[in-house]
Amino acid sequence: MEKQIEHFLDEEENQYSLRPQELSEFIGQEKNKEKLRIHIEAAGQRNQALEHVLLVGPPGLGKTTLAKIISNEMSSGFKSAVGPSMIKIELATILTNLAEGDVFFIDEIHRMQPQIQETLYPAMEDYKLDLPVGQGPSADIIPVPLSRFTLIGATTREGLLAAPFRDRFGIRIHLDYYTVEELKIAILQNSEKMNVEVEDNAQFEIGLRSRGTMRIAKNLLFNVRDYASVKYDGVVTKDIALEALNFFQIDELGLDEQDRDYLRALIDKFDGRAGLKSLAVAISEDERTVEEVYEPYLIKIGFISFTPTGRVATDRAYNHLGYKNQTLLEL
Ligand code: ADE
What we know:
By secondary structure, the chain is an alpha/beta fold. Helix content is 50%, strand content 14%. It is globular, with a radius of gyration of 23 Å. Adenine (ADE) binds next to loops.
């Protein structure tokens, strides 16, 4: 029993240490890192809190990791919350407990209720919280002073933020999909930390199927490692990596069964053209997941396009799934 607990703790420790702790360890996003370094150093020179930061980009590119790194680099405290579930009292409690220079990270900030967003305006701008006291016409607003803190918001949908809210972030960082080379570096580093031997061309095959996304690269590495250790002796060669990826139904473009279900539904049920609502119902997903998780990558690889009459599957998507070309069918 004791052994098991020890093992569990080791794993936890291991998972934690897989996250980079400093900007210099964060792979890729070079221009963004340079910008952040400048802002962090300038804030340090002035002995001020860093300006508020908005991190924008698809899921899995490392927004949370980057927020923690910023806090480490500023040697500040770190508090976090999730936008959609946040209520006023939670926000007020966190804000009033922040120390000078602390980082307050809000994930999915575009899904925060509008009234709560508005509570943040005076907090971000003047470091004060307008606290209502009493009810009805006699209610008073008491401004409560706050420490100078840095709000870091993460969003997959910058366009959904109200303009006055977005404009209150002095630093805006747009994260890009990673190149295969960058993902390969991360796969190598993570495999070394996990003590797993992954051959160079196996790193490449995993990177190629990671959809430009750091989180997917790490997850595929964990899956392939498990497969190699159960079916083979643990070393991940190119052939074993390909066999494992095939077993987990990840195709050569990194699409999984869910992506293929989406494309098949679009093509088979709607003749290659459908609205978001119909598609989401057809694959039993909620619309937000379809928009934020499935579609960005399918657009990036040119498998779907958005038109005024709905999502359209392109010839590439038809070919990839082994259908005859859409244009050929129409002839
Ligand atoms: N984990 C999440 N994003 C990362 C990155 N860009 N580099 C290294 N590890 C990461």
